[in-house]
Amino acid sequence: MTKINTKSDIIRNPGIDFQVDKFCDLKINLSAVEQRCQEYAKRRSIKKEKQAAWLLKVVSLIDLTTLSGDDTRTRVRRLCKKALNPINEKTKAALDIGDLNLKTAAVCVYHEMLSEAATHLKGTGVHLAAVSTGFPAGLSPLPLRIEEIKYSVEAGADEIDIVISRRHVLEGNWEELYNEVKMFREACGEAHLKTILATGELGNLTNIAKASVVCMMAGADFIKTSTGKEPTNATLPVSLVMARMIRDYYESTGYMVGFKPAGGISDTKTALQFMTLMQEELGRRWLEPDLFRFGASSLLGDIERQLDHFTSGYYSAAYRHPLA
Fold first, then answer.
1. Does 42 qualify as catalytic in the annotation?
2. Is 224 a catalytic site residue?
3. Which of 224, 290, 302, 308 is catalytic?
4. Which candidate in 161, 221, 290, 302 is catalytic?
5. Does the annotation mark 260 as catalytic?
6. Catalytic hit among 82, 182, 210, 260
7. Cis peptide bond N-terminal to 136, omega within 30
8. What pTM value is reported for the model?
9. Which CATH code for domain 20-320?
């Protein structure tokens, strides 16, 4: 796949004034969305050398994530090492990609683990992301959520994954949602803001579409599907709707906003369907890490197994490809 410059051609989304007329009449046809999504699996298949190339691209788009109550510094340290060397040496040699300097896009952790991660990632080009604003529920007091963002930025995070207050969406309090996300964006400063919609808790696709627009209007750098903690996380129908909202926002404002599906993407087949969706709905430029991420960790292990099969003809056991 052709490598393109991603450093100078993106103007960060500054947000725009709240305009209810931009989304108030939105209505999403569920059956039409589902029918469109079925096409990605049925008609578009990527095989052999092309599949291997696409999977290497997927690796560069992953936010390696650990968000467990039993996280330790040792686990985070190993995760960072995996982010810097995501493909085992044997497979890299077989693919002849030793000079590719392949890394994942970011490592994402709770604030408490930022100092450990920063020690290992500083100067590597791998971004450091922290979940914030009372993740995953987002129900702590607003002043504390704002301070939590500032606290993580000061600790070294250059990306902040925030959760919105779902009640604003469910109650139709769109201007309150706008003001909340705008305050989060201001608290981030130079750090990029990924707004997690928690789509599995928003009721329907129309709500998801409206929430996507409002968050982008408030200055979100990325809109993200899920925390990974909801019963339903990233799905193709939800992602199609969000991608279409990104496209509409770009066409009306000229600002490119990123997309991050997260939760439930654990195999290469699913990942390639998401890649196909992005290619067809938003274009090649949205297949770079400054505009597209996968919130996943187990996905990387399956990618290694598929690449191993491509080079050897055999599937290796999962335990041969540990996360770290």
1. no
2. yes
3. 224
4. 161
5. yes
6. 260
7. yes
8. 0.93
9. 3.20.20.70
